[in-house]
Specification:
Elements: H1 2-19, H2 35-38, E1 41-51, E2 56-69, E3 72-81, E4 86-95, E5 100-104, E6 108-117, E7 120-131, E8 134-146, E9 151-160, E10 163-174
Antiparallel strand pairs: 1-2, 1-10, 2-3, 3-4, 4-5, 5-6, 6-7, 7-8, 8-9, 9-10
Length: about 180
């Protein structure tokens, strides 16, 4: 019986993964998303975390500052959640000669790896996430879509042992000279 359950689980997982989009699907789109250009300077973001059923668990804002020197960048993220919790993550990002990106942060268990094509960027990593007093290693499949020169929509599926446990949606805007995000 256990072999049957594992076989069905593997078959369903394979079917779902074959239906997912690939970064190459966006190769001929614009604007061209260059992580090192977009995440250079001040940004602000608004987002939410949902469970696997779609219920919103948390909402948050993020103040970001990105700096780049050559092919290496730092992205400082300061989160404030709707319950008042604050969190800081500092990404260290590197762009390789072939255009792929890698990134690490203190709570990133498996470094981010990915690339951009057209207006999209996809990268995957494992993040140590506190859940009910314990730390869970959650896999993130993170997609960013540059809508225009000032705005990016970020959507990340979160999985544990291959099963979806939630998702994060984030609206990111470059900050203008007066310190406020661009209004729609």
């Amino acid at each position: 019986m256990r072999t049957l359950v594992l076989g069905v689980t593997f078959a369903l997982s394979s079917l779902l993964m074959s239906c997912s989009s690939k970064i190459e699907d966006y190769a001929d789109t614009s604007p061209r998303f260059a992580l090192e250009e977009y995440f250079d300077g001040e940004l602000t973001a608004h987002g939410m975390v949902q469970d696997r059923s779609g219920k919103v668990l948390r909402r948050f804002t993020v103040a970001m500052v990105g700096t780049w020197q050559g092919n290496k960048g730092t992205l400082e993220e300061d989160f404030v959640y709707d319950d008042g919790e604050q969190q800081r993550r500092v990404w260290h990002i590197e762009k390789s000669a072939d255009g792929h990106y890698s990134g690490t942060a203190s709570d990133v268990v498996v470094p981010a790896q990915g690339q951009a094509k057209g207006f999209a960027l996809n990268w995957r990593y494992t993040l140590a996430v506190p859940v009910d007093g314990k730390i869970w290693n959650i896999d993130f499949n993170d997609w960013m879509y540059q809508l225009d020169e000032r705005r990016v929509l970020n959507r990340a599926d979160m999985t544990k042992w291959g099963f979806k446990v939630g998702e994060v949606t984030l609206w990111i805007e470059r900050v203008n000279g007066e310190g406020e995000g661009v209004k729609l």
